[in-house]
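Hi both,

Apologies for the delay on this - the queue was longer than expected. I finally got the zinc ion-bound model through. Below you'll find the protein sequence and the ligand SMILES exactly as submitted, and right after that the structure tokens for the full complex including the ligand.
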Amino acid sequence: MQNSTSITQTQLTRPPLRLNWGNTLFLTITPLIALIGMPLHIYYVGTSWSLIGVFVIYLIATGLSITGGYHRLFAHRSYEANCMVKLFYLIFGAAACENSALHWATDHRNHHRFVDQDPDPYNIRLGFFHAHMGWVLLKRPKKLSFDREHDLSEDSLVRWQHRFYLPLAIIIGGGLPLLIGYYLGNALGCFLLAGITRIVIVHHATFLINSLCHFLGKQPYSLKDSSRDSALVAFLTYGEGYHNFHHRFQYDYRNGIRWYHFDPTKWLIKTLEILRLANGLHRASDMHIFKARLDVQRNQVEQRLAGFSQEFREAMERNIHITHEALLSAYANWGKLRAEYRSVRKSIGDKGRRLILKLEQDLRRARSHYMATRASWALIVQQGYLQVPA
Ligand SMILES: [Zn+2]
Ligand SMILES: [Zn+2]
């Protein structure tokens, strides 16, 4: 009885859902043109390698402006960029037709602040479709406030793009492909391919991060929210799919931290740094990342102990605690020696041969100690807790 009353009250206090007709029409018509109009045009008129080239360049420029610019630079400030790079991101970010950087970054910061709760604009708890694109189709219950985002609203370039977002989106997103197409001899074809179809692909790639990356995948770094790592989405979104890592370490300019992780946005930012067009790249320390992974594993093992006797649980928890601390200390020691070894090698070259040999020995010892402790931990994580004492 009490339950049904509270549900009725919630429904009464919640504002009615109203469609944002502008967004709804845009997000319905553009995919229809891409799926029907564009293939028909290719069938009847044909296409060319130069048109495909313009499409690919536009896809990469607008996609990376969202991931490297709107997301990792403006929303998270995970690095600093030269004003020409910022200008590029703002111009081609507008051409992605995902709103101004100020708007986009404010929504995204609210996503991180209130993840999985009501004020999260793309809250996955309201369903996959809502998180994917449903939230864009609806009118906001109240106007978005930029009051907390001083760094963005005080940035003159960001303010300029916010003010002229619509003309920029129309001119760079649609007008320029039309013009390029005109010079290449197929204005409509270029508009349909590098304009409309490209917008649809970039839209749904971005949407997948908010939907699929909160729905499917692993959670190696944090169990506190619904975010997940998905290599598939990373492949489709220039590296943004390592979303569980990103939610845990949102200040890190990388999303995929291993060398084999597909993260072109990270490679772009690193290249910009080498070219002196970006600086101040933030990264989480190896120790913090290692500790986050261990905490998740410890949490999972402790949860699975719940069904066992108190005596066994306490013994296991002691064992888990001791091995956990030993592993952290072994990893920290190995990391410290690695850093010392690298800096000594760099600074003294072959002159300090004896010191280097000693460090190499210490390093080998620290590594084997770390590997042995890790093996004990792996035993706990995988099977140790399953052995019920007699
Ligand atoms: Zn997220
Ligand atoms: Zn983010």
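Main takeaway for now: The chain has two domains: 14-279, 286-386.

I'll put the files on the shared drive as well.

H.
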